[in-house]
Specification:
There is one protein chain. By secondary structure, the protein is an alpha+beta fold. The chain folds into two domains: 126 residues, no CATH class; 67 residues. It contains five helices and eleven strands; from the N terminus they run αββααβββααββββββ. A hairpin with a 2-residue loop joins β3 and β4. The longest helix is centred in the first third of the chain and has 18 residues. 25% of the residues are buried.
Length: 220
C-alpha cells in the first residue's frame, strides 16, 4: 500500500477542521466526499468477499478514514479492524478517486482524468491495482478453528520450528500482494543460514491448515 508520511498529521488536521467525528475510538471523515467514497468502498468490500450487512456490523469496525493526495491524484484511505473470535486483524485499504490530468501512468485505463470517478470506474482502477489501489478480500469467516493466540503460536512452531518469529495476523501475504481467499492468516519466518535460506510459515486461522516455503529474509 502507498505510504503516506503525513498520515497522522493529516488526521489531526482534519479533526481540527471538523471534518471527522469520533465514534467509539474511531475517527471517520464525514465530508460529503468521504461519505460518498466510504459507501463505494463498503459496496465493493461486501461484494468482493461475499459478506452481508450483518457480517459487516458484527465483525468489521471502521477506525479511521481520510482523503490524501499526491502527484497522481486524490485517494480515499480507510483503516478498519476485523474481529473474529480472539483475533483482531487491522486492515488498511486505499483507492484513487481522482486522477490528475497530467498523470501519464496506467494509460491502459479508460477512466477519465481530472474528474471524480464513479463506482464502476473505481472498480476498473482496482482491477489492475492502479496507483496502488486495493480493497482487501474479507471473507465470511465467523469462527476460527485455531481457538486461541497461544495455540496459533504453538502451531506456528510446529510448522517453522522453535525459532520461528511471528510477524503478524493478516489477509496479506506481503505488502505488495493480497491473498484472494478471504481467510485470515498468521505469518512467521524462521531465520536460516543465509538471506535466501529462511523458512516462511503461514497458518490459516479459519481452517487450521499450514504451509511453509523457503524464502528470503533478513538474517541478523
Amino acid at each position: 500500500m502507498k505510504s503516506k508520511s503525513l498520515y497522522f498529521i493529516l488526521i489531526l488536521g482534519i479533526l481540527f477542521l471538523g471534518n471527522c467525528k469520533k465514534q467509539e475510538d474511531a475517527f471517520l471523515c464525514t465530508t460529503d466526499r468521504c461519505v460518498q467514497y466510504e459507501t463505494i468502498w463498503k459496496n465493493i468490500l461486501l461484494e468482493q468477499g461475499g459478506i452481508d450487512q450483518g457480517y459487516f456490523d458484527d465483525h468489521v469496525k471502521p477506525l479511521e478514514s481520510l482523503i490524501t493526495t499526491d502527484e497522481d491524484g486524490e485517494y480515499f484511505d480507510i483503516r478498519y479492524r476485523v474481529e473474529i473470535d480472539w483475533a483482531e486483524i487491522e486492515v488498511r485499504d486505499q483507492f484513487i478517486f481522482r486522477i490528475n490530468e497530467n498523470s501519464i501512468k496506467y494509460d491502459q485505463l479508460t477512466v477519465p482524468r481530472g474528474e471524480l470517478l464513479n463506482e464502476d470506474e473505481i472498480r476498473e482502477v482496482l482491477s489492475i491495482a492502479a496507483f496502488q489501489s486495493n480493497i482487501t478480500t474479507v471473507g465470511p469467516v465467523t469462527s476460527l478453528s485455531v481457538k486461541s493466540n497461544s495455540k496459533a503460536k504453538k502451531e506456528m512452531k510446529d510448522l517453522g520450528g522453535k525459532d520461528v518469529e511471528i510477524q503478524r495476523i493478516s489477509y496479506f501475504e506481503n505488502v505488495s500482494g493480497a491473498l484472494s481467499d478471504g481467510f485470515p492468516y498468521m505469518f512467521g519466518v524462521t531465520p536460516g543460514a543465509s538471506e535466501n535460506d529462511c523458512t516462511c510459515s503461514r497458518l490459516n486461522l479459519a481452517t487450521g491448515e499450514g504451509t511453509t516455503d523457503i524464502c528470503g529474509c533478513q538474517v541478523q
